């Protein structure tokens, strides 16, 4: 009887823990980004796919496989895109001959 009760308790704990464990480590896509265009890279970063050179669903390989997009980071509860372009600044140089 104790063996059956132990197995039943273990099965109940396992069934209750599986949905919780599957939800860990996969942050939802930011607002306005489709789930199939989001690649999560942990809790605080991810990559948004904006364009692909091939139709990956149909398996067409006319060009080298490449994706275009941008990175996003999360600070607190806010997702922000990472801007890869340098800021508009003046760089001092020295010309020598």
Main β sheet profile:
4 strands, antiparallel
CA-based gyration radius:
24 Å
Classify the secondary structure makeup into a structural class. Answer: alpha+beta
Number of strands: 4
Percent range for β-strand residues: 15-25%
Mean pLDDT: 75
Number of helices: 1
Strand line-up of the largest beta sheet: 1-2-3-4
Query: Per the principal axes of the C-alpha atoms, what is the gross shape?
Result: elongated
Report the order of strands and helices: HEEEE
Unreliable parts: none
Describe the secondary-structure layout.
Blueprint: H1 2-23, E1 38-40, E2 45-52, E3 67-75, E4 78-81
Antiparallel strand pairs: 1-2, 2-3, 3-4
Describe this structure as you would to a colleague.
This protein is α+β, with helices and mostly antiparallel strands and 97 residues long. It has a domain at 26-81. It is built from 1 helix and 4 strands, in the order H-E-E-E-E. It has one helix spanning 2-23; strands spanning 38-40, 45-52, 67-75, 78-81. A hairpin with a 4-residue loop joins strand 1 (38-40) and strand 2. The N and C termini lie far apart (94 Å). 4% of the residues are buried.
Question: Quick recap of the structure?
Answer:
By secondary structure, the chain is α+β, with helices and mostly antiparallel strands.
From the structure above, extract its key features.
4 strands, single chain, 1 helix, 4-stranded antiparallel β-sheet, 97 residues, alpha+beta
């Amino acid at each position: 009887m104790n063996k059956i009760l132990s197995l039943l308790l273990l099965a109940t704990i396992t069934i209750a823990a599986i949905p919780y464990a599957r939800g860990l480590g996969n942050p939802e896509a930011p607002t306005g980004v489709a789930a199939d265009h989001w690649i999560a890279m942990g809790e605080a970063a991810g990559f948004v796919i904006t364009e692909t050179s091939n139709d990956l669903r149909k398996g067409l390989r006319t060009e080298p496989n490449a994706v275009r997009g941008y990175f996003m980071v999360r600070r607190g509860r806010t997702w922000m895109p990472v801007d890869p372009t340098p800021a508009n600044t003046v760089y001092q140089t020295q010309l020598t001959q």
